[in-house]
Amino acid sequence: MDLDVARIEKAVRVIDPVFLDTPQYLDEQLCRALGGRAVTVKVETANPVRSFKGRGADLMLSTLAPGTPVVCASSGNFGQAVAYAGRARGMPVEVFVPETVNPDKRERMEAFGARVIAAGPDGSSAREAAAAYAADHPDRFYAQDGSQAAIAEGAGTIGVELTRPRPGGAGRPVYDAVVLPVGDGALINGVGRWMKEHAPGTRIVGVNAEGAPSMLESLRAGRPVRVEHARTFADGIAVSLPLEASVRRARALVDEIVLVSDEAIAAAVELAARTLGILLEPAGAAGLAAIAQGLVAGDRPATVLTGANPRPEQVRELAARLARSSC
């Protein structure tokens, strides 16, 4: 196992504090809506990139020489995180994105100073283009979400925060499961590595969209498996082929992968807006969707609300759903 718990603990002192110590709590209205289960939510949306990705990106860039140019591929959130961290650290950033990238995510990457290059119809084509470009430009560092250990270890600081003792000497919180959306796998592997060491009784449950079950199929096969067409509106987890390093880690750290439909994700986005007052992007609500669908055993799960960069049309659709539910 190349992920190190000591490095995860140290990362808390390295990562930009703007990404750390995010809220985690029980919301009574949400818990009632979920049948009375004590569901802890950890909110990773109130930061400059509106997702958890800043933790791993900032830690990764902290390991590079000052001024190193960085190249990455992204559907949007990782690219925002690398662009933000790169600007703060004086590193030029180039991001390869699918042609279908959320226009708001592209605008935010450019606002953080990144050069954004559209390459092909999906995330795999963007990743291939970024890898080819980096190979032709050896002065650039190629940051691969799901590959480099530091990216997962940065995300693993979420596990550190989840397991901290409660204020007032109430001891460490206890969870039956931690439920996490799975795209490139850095989040679940980083958090899973910490939890297996510090809360071994907690199950690590990943969530794939039904239309993009690449990590589920990869764990079943014991190797990366390509899903030819990732069909889901949750672009943050629309991964057609996980990286080998990510699959290898997940085989050791993840207890189960469950599948949720786009409709279940949409309902979870609505539920978060109605009970928590948080507007999530679809991928950010996948863990909550799995709990709401009864796919996770136990009465005390925790989930991470991983991102809040919805497409404009998704915002309009949610507004319409909320209007209908209030009638």
How do you describe this structure in short?
The chain is built from 14 helices and 10 strands. It has 327 residues and is of the alpha/beta class.
Distance between the termini: 53 Å
Largest sheet: 6 strands, mixed
- Uncertain ranges: none
Question: Structural class, from secondary structure content?
Answer: alpha/beta
Task: Tell me, briefly, the overall form.
Answer: globular
Compute the CA-based radius of gyration. 18 Å
Written overview of the protein:
- With 327 residues, the protein is α/β, with parallel strands linked by helices.
- 42% of the residues lie in helices and 14% in strands.
- It has 14 helices and ten strands.
- The protein has helices at residues 5-11, 28-33, 53-62, 77-88, 103-111, 123-136, 149-155, 157-162, 186-198, 214-221, 244-253, 262-275, 286-292, 312-326, and strands at residues 24-26, 40-43, 70-73, 93-97, 115-118, 141-143, 177-181, 203-209, 256-260, 301-305.
- The strands form two sheets. Strands 1-2-10-7-8-9 form a six-stranded mixed β-sheet, sandwiched between helices. A four-stranded parallel β-sheet has the order 5-4-3-6, sandwiched between helices.
- α4 (77-88) runs parallel beside α5.
- The longest helix has 15 residues, at 312-326.
- It starts with a helix and ends with a helix.
- The mean pLDDT is 94.
